[in-house]
Every structure is written in structure tokens, then in C-alpha cells.
Write a structure and sequence with these properties.
homodimer; 342 residues; alpha/beta; 434 Repressor (Amino-terminal Domain); 3 domains; six-stranded parallel beta sheet; six-stranded mixed beta sheet; 12 strands; 16% strand; DNA-binding
Chain lengths: 342, 342
DNA sequence: TTGTAGGCGTTATCAG
DNA sequence: CTGATAACGCCTACAA
């Protein structure tokens, strides 16, 4: 296990110079003879010298590492975000340390602690469903510690946030259904304690109003879990019991949309002829199911990339907290496929 | 940005004792008066002391951090593995530092370098598609550095590997198709420099032989990318050009299976009546497409968890390299759905 | 142009 | 029971 990593001292001893000379030569400091530089660099290369990042961190008080705190890794959207984060961090020479909270507040807190103990330079957070109090974040923000929130963002004054424009995503989706001639559109919504759910619901409602329709509260049905099973059962129930028959479903996520689609098919309805369906997130399978599913694409990769850029700019003091508009809202894109076009 | 973390020195100064005393009191060392312990702990608590993990790492020469090198984060299987890794690592008090290679060898190498510079305790690797030479790993293994390979594993003598039983997964899948009466089964294979591809291919071939059929080399078609598009084109081509018409497709991954399915449908063939289809991995969408896709489920979470357990046992020297059977093989499960039953 | 002497936060060793 | 000192690997005043 001992890797016997080569240190500056080893090089110094070999070359019979002091370690400071080696240190300086390696970084092209002024006032070191070209000859010495050459010899040091050559030997360093030959001995396969790699600076010890830990020693550097200790000395600098920072680690060139950013932390990522996320509810779940196994989630198409989040994994896409991670990908964007990793990409930008790598390009700018930072490492990424990852923890998932599994939606638990305790883990969120302990992750922060661990990361701080590791001299993390900043942190990217999408908080857990259990989190309702944000003191553990505000405390850090107050001290000027760089945090950027994404997707699930708190209502804190100083918080920098990167989100998707859920409102207009939902608005466009609903408008599209209306334009296709669907009139009785059910919205399968998400848990209303999440901001994103409320925004999507608002987009749905306003689109109806703006086009001269009166939203029917009964037509907004909450699907808490967001699974296809749940949506399938819910939809079956809706098709059976509602007196005013729905002719479209706008689901707040793709899984739910699939559930609705399956339920409709099972009830003998044709998609898109009899019933239009639109999802949210544009998961991979949207283009693989039959009929292909219209969905609102969220720029997960971009979200991760953008959040990381801001965080690193903050870390490197390229920007200051206050000189910066606190929230970035990314555009969604409605990807129209077969499930909603007739 | 300065967090002004409390150090042992601060506590020592406050209490007018030496920092060694504080250090010892904090860790319940023998030979420290209960009174001192109490005072130290109380103050540490009050001042919200957190040991500086970086200083510890420097001192110990290790970091309580493991590295994960993975081709792609946005991948159902891999994200599941990460989840298992994160879970076990967290439970045992380790941090996880993550990099994705995007299937690039250079990034694989540079990731290893960075991680070593960070005094990583060990690393979990699933190598990139570009990787054909494993010297950068063997060098480390030779020095006794803990590496555990998972999923995509190299043919190195000393390598510890955690894989899925690709052979029997493929064998069972093929057997299942044969039992359903399919006779001309095409195998859409993966890139043959990957062990998993070769194993799956072997399972396919042997199942045919064991059931009295003669494998036709032409019926093994390599799909390098593994995307649905690629498989769709390939399948369309196959359906057009092969004189002996295929009546089933066993794809080495689910995306490819979907591609084959779409191509078959487009060619006017019914699934499963005319053509049977089986995939590999059991991605979420398998149960959402029409017809639902039979697939070989891989225990991703377990794979991550198991690999991490072994790695940490190695790191903590609970086990030695040689006293350990070098390969763990996890069982797959054939999930039979509609695409292959007639 | 180069060397010496701290110091980053912690622990281990050796005295007292 | 407690304190001083050195060390982990690197950097950076300050000297020479």
C-alpha cells in the first residue's frame, strides 16, 4: 500500500539543492537559473513526481474540491446534472466529492460537516425532501462560504440558485395540448410542498386561463410518489369516475405520463387520437415507447454546468455574491412527439 | 470565505493546556484526567470544533476517501452502482470522489493521477471503452495499491473483480428464446474488447450448442455504440440482407434491444409473434415500452456495495490480496416480459 | 541565484 | 497526568 510517492525532498537530495529551490524551479519562479530549472524538471519527470495535493490543501487552506449534495444518484435528471458538474469541475481543475442524502435531513447535515472538515472550496446542493429548515445552510452563507443551490432551492435571501423554468415549461406543454384541440386536460401534479410542483401547476392553470378556459380544480390530481404504477391506478380511476371525460393528461413527470398512457390504452382509448399525453423531464425512454412521448425537456447537464461555473467563479472570487443576480433560470424545451399530435 | 475553523490550538489556548493534551482528551486517550477530558470536550463542543481532515490525511498519509472511475454517470446501471458505493462508503466513514471518463483513456489516466495526488485510499474502476492496455493499473497493483474493478474488468492476474455473471445471464436469455420456439436468434453484441461482451456472446453461443443448434457466425453482429439508433439501423440491414431470416434478437443491452424492436416493427413484423426480443440490464423503461421488454437484470446496487466492501476491507487490511478469491460474480435474473413470450 | 526557517493542523514520541 | 518537539509535504518570507 505504501506508494512511496516522490516528494520535493527526494528530488532536492538527489540534486543536492534545497527543497525550496526545487519547489521554485518546478513553478518557474523568477530568480532560478535556467540550468537548475532544467535539471529539476528533468529529474522530477524522470522520478514521476506528483505534488501531494493534501499537503497543498493544508498549506493553502483549501482543497480544489467541490462537494455535491444530491437526494438520489439513481435518477435520470440528477445523474445528468452530475455529469454537467463533473465536466466543468474537471475542466477547471477541481475534484468532485459526492454524497447522496437519500432524502434524509441528517445525512444532508452530516455531509456538510464532513465536507467542511475536508476544506471543501464550495458546495452544490439540491436539498432533501425532509429539509424544511435551512439554518445549516444560512449559517455558512453568512460566513461567506460559497454555496449554489440547484433544482430544489430554498427561499433564502442570499441564496444563489439555478433552476429550470418550470412555470413556462408547463405553460407551453398545456398550450400545445390546447392547440392540438384537446379541451379537458387533467394535470397529474407532484407533491405540492415542492416548489417545482407548484410552479408546474401554475403554468398549467395560467395556460388554460390565458386561452379562455376555466380551470377545474377536480382536474388537478396529485400523484405523490411519481411512479408509473401510481399514475396508472389514478388515471384508471379518473377515467371511470369523472363525469366530464378527460381527453388529455399533462403529467408532472414522465413516469406518471407513462402510467397514464398505459391506463388509457387499457381503457380502450387510443393515444393520441382519443387522448393526448405530455410528460415532464424528457427521460431517455420518451423516444422509445409507443407512441413516443411528448415531454418538457429539462437541461440537466446545463444546470449542473452552470451551477458549477457560478460556484467556481465565486470560489475564485471572479465574482462577488452581491454583484450577481441571485437566480439563474434555464429554459425548458417542449419536445413534441407522437403522444400529443393529432 | 474564511470559515475560521476552530483548531485544537484554539481550545488549548483557551484552556491553558498544551495542544497534545487537547488532542488526547478528545480521543479518550488513557492517562488524561477525567476532569481535563470533560473540560476539553465541553469547550470543543461549545466552540463547534471539527477536526481538520486534511491535516489528518497529511499526517496519516491517507485520506479516508475512495475514488470512483466510471465511464458515464448518466447511465441507469452505473448510477445504480454509484448508489451502492456511496451507501457503503458513507456507512464506513469514507468519502467518495467521483470522475467519469466519458469513455476516454486520457481521462482515465489523469483521474488516477489526480486521485493518487490526493492520497486516495483505494479506487473502484470500470474502465473506458478506449482502454486496451492496463499498465496504468498494473503498476499500481504491483505496488500493492488497492483497486477493485467492477463490471468492466481487465484480464490481469492480480486484479480483484466484481462482475455480474454475464455468461449465465446470456445463456439463460438464449435458452428462454429457444424454449419459446425461436430458432434463428441474432445476437447484437457489444464491443469485443470488453470482457462483458465476450462473456455474453459465449453464453449465447453455448446455449445454442447445448440445445443442439449450430451457431452461425453471421448471426453475431457487433453494435459498438450500444445506442438504439445504431441497433435500429443494424437490424433493418439484417432483416433486409440475411437469407436465413432471423426470428429473434438477443441484444447485449436494452437500448439496442429497443432499436431492434423498432426496426422489426417498422419492417412489419410483430413482436413477440414474429420476432422475439430480449435485452440486457433491465433498465427502467423495460416495463414501460410496448410490448414490455424481457431483459436480464443486473444487481447494480449490490455490485457497487460489494466492490466497496472488498475495497475497504483491503484498505483496512482486514483481508490480504492473496488470501482472497480474486473474483466475485453476482447472479443475474432473467425478467420475462411480453417481448419474448408467444 | 539559492538556502533557512517557520507554519498549515494533527498526532506520536519522548520527557518531565 | 501533561508538555515540548518533531514530523507529514509544501510554500514563502527573509537571509545570504
Amino acid at each position: 500500500m505504501k506508494l512511496d510517492q516522490v516528494t520535493i525532498k527526494d528530488i532536492a537530495r538527489e540534486l543536492k539543492v534545497s527543497s525550496s529551490t526545487v519547489s521554485r524551479a518546478l513553478k518557474d519562479y523568477p530568480g532560478i537559473s535556467d540550468e537548475t530549472k532544467r535539471r529539476v524538471k528533468e529529474l522530477a519527470d524522470k522520478m514521476n513526481y506528483r505534488p501531494n495535493a493534501i499537503a497543498l490543501s493544508l498549506q493553502k487552506g483549501r482543497s480544489f474540491t467541490i462537494g455535491v449534495i444530491i437526494p438520489e444518484v439513481v435518477h435520470f435528471f440528477f445523474s445528468t446534472v452530475i455529469s454537467g458538474i463533473e465536466e466543468v469541475a474537471f475542466d477547471r481543475g477541481y475534484k468532485v466529492i459526492l454524497t447522496q442524502t437519500n432524502e434524509k435531513l441528517v445525512r444532508e447535515k452530516s455531509s456538510i460537516d464532513t465536507m467542511l472538515a475536508n476544506q471543501i472550496d464550495g458546495v452544490l446542493v439540491s436539498y432533501s425532501k425532509e429539509t424544511t429548515n435551512f439554518d445549516h445552510f444560512s449559517q455558512l452563507l453568512d460566513k461567506g462560504f460559497p454555496i449554489v443551490f440547484f433544482d430544489r432551492v430554498p427561499n433564502i435571501e442570499q441564496a444563489i440558485t439555478v433552476t429550470v423554468d418550470d412555470y413556462s415549461g408547463a405553460y407551453e406543454a398545456t398550450k400545445h395540448l390546447l392547440r392540438q384541440g384537446y379541451r379537458n386536460i387533467v394535470h397529474l401534479s407532484g407533491p405540492s410542498n415542492l416548489n417545482i410542483s407548484r410552479e408546474r401547476q401554475r403554468g398549467y392553470t395560467n395556460a388554460l386561463i390565458d386561452h379562455g378556459f376555466t380551470p377545474d380544480p377536480e382536474f388537478i390530481v396529485e400523484c405523490t410518489l411519481g411512479t408509473d404504477d401510481e399514475a396508472q391506478k389514478t388515471t384508471t380511476e379518473i377515467l371511470k369516475s369523472f363525469k366530464k371525460k378527460p381527453d388529455a393528461f399533462f403529467a408532472n413527470n414522465d413516469m406518471a405520463a407513462v402510467g397514464a398512457m398505459l391506463a388509457c390504452k387499457a381503457a380502450g382509448l387510443r393515444v393520441p387520437e382519443d387522448v393526448g399525453i405530455v410528460g415532464f423531464s424528457n427521460w431517455q425512454f420518451c423516444s422509445m415507447i409507443d407512441p413516443t412521448l411528448t415531454s418538457v425537456a429539462q437541461p440537466g447537464f446545463n444546470m449542473g454546468a452552470k451551477a458549477t461555473e457560478i460556484l467556481l467563479d465565486l470560489v475564485e472570487k471572479k465574482i462577488q455574491l452581491h454583484e450577481f443576480s441571485n437566480s439563474v433560470v434555464l429554459d425548458t424545451e417542449l419536445l413534441i412527439r407522437k403522444s400529443s399530435v393529432r
